[in-house]
Amino acid sequence: MYQWYEAARICFVLLEDLLPEQPLEAYLTSCRWFSRGWTLQELIAPRLVEFFDQSLQFIGSKRDHVELISATTKIPPHILREGVEGASICVAAKLSWAAGRQTKRKEDAAYSLLGLFNVHMPLIYGEGDQAFQRLQEEIVKRHNDMTIFAWNPLERQLYERQYIGLFAPSPAHFANSFAIYPFDDVFIEFSTTNKGVLFTSEIRLRVVEQPGDDDPGVVYLFCLGMSSQYGGYERRRHTGIYLRKLGPRLYCRLGNIAMASFPWKATRRLSTLDVTATHILIDPIVATTNVPFLYRMSSVHVPCPGNIRVDKAYPTTLWDHTDSLYMSARFYGWTLHPVVLALSIWVCNVPLVLLCDYKVEPPVLKAFQPLQRPRETALIFQEKYREDGTSWQDLFLQAPSLETLNDTVFIDQGATSMRIRFTLESKHIWVLYKKITAKSLTFSIVHVPAGLDKPLSQSRIETKRLGLGSSPTHNEYVTYGRDTC
Prior knowledge:
seven-stranded mixed sheet, single chain, DUF8212 domain-containing protein, alpha+beta, about 475 residues, 14 helices, about 30% strand, eleven-stranded mixed sheet
């Protein structure tokens, strides 16, 4: 039908609810014709559209009232004049034109847009809201445009669901997407699967503080395009959605947060994470099952108080910034962690590298200073190991000296020395509003005089920390409690 309107020399529109004496500026676009779903194609496709009021009096053409119609429908004037053929309009903007329109049947909200996107699919009346999801799946097959995911939950839905799917339930969710346009330097391959939308190409996520939370943590931001709604090149903003990591290469959109909008310069300063072969759920039900918890069995948790900061965590596919832990590569953690878990961290303003061998129980830790072992550090944090890591066998073949390391590292501070010992303790932690058992990283610090070849015994450390021991001997300098610099 869209092609018929597009090929027509002229399209006549009778506005039966527009009275002859009513001023056009106030009443033209309030006519029911401008709010019906099927009439969107009648407005856009023909080059020449002529309007008539209730008395069949000619009141002007689409071109005569283009500014008035554009202000109401959010359709750019050049689209009303020339049509969408050859125009650079993103998917989200096109869907926003249908946001305020009504149809008698739910399915027609999707079927009336087929011609606008030049896609074809069977009409199945009775499928309800599923029709609009099918439309989006067909659009994804034909258009390489990530703005199709740039939609907002409705106001009343922001407090109803923690997770939502990647596709919008209806065109109404695109009401505020009229000023979005895609990145001109991004051409990402993505497709729908029975697991979700698969992004085969590399996508860039950003780690940001969760907005509007009394106890702010961090979540993932997936930028989908730019917004010109605020005017001017320097005032353009990045638009995106917030994600929660459920498992390795598996994410779900957060439903209790509106779409993100960041000044483009501020976005460039955010911590970035490049991932490949990543799924984002279409059906959010999976996020409410045991799937996220099964991936967190046998996890290694790295709490980040004021004295510790994580710079890098390899492999990135297993690391979750939100929960600050390594997930299992498989369900249930039966295989535990067959690869090297490598952390580049700062402890009390000292850079350290910490390796965790968790192939079997109990896990083994190895710590060293990167400045003392630059070759080994560069080897561990190679780009090729970033996503999937490396095996211990391969690592020891290339750096055999790492085999002799243990969980304690010696820091020379001139007149005194500091020894940091790392341990993993089984603890209960809260993730996804549920308590699980994980191996949680802790550390203790001992200060000793320079030249002392042994650290104070752990029993003496605990004795001094509890204040139960005698005064220090000439060999002891100071001892501090756990996690204290």
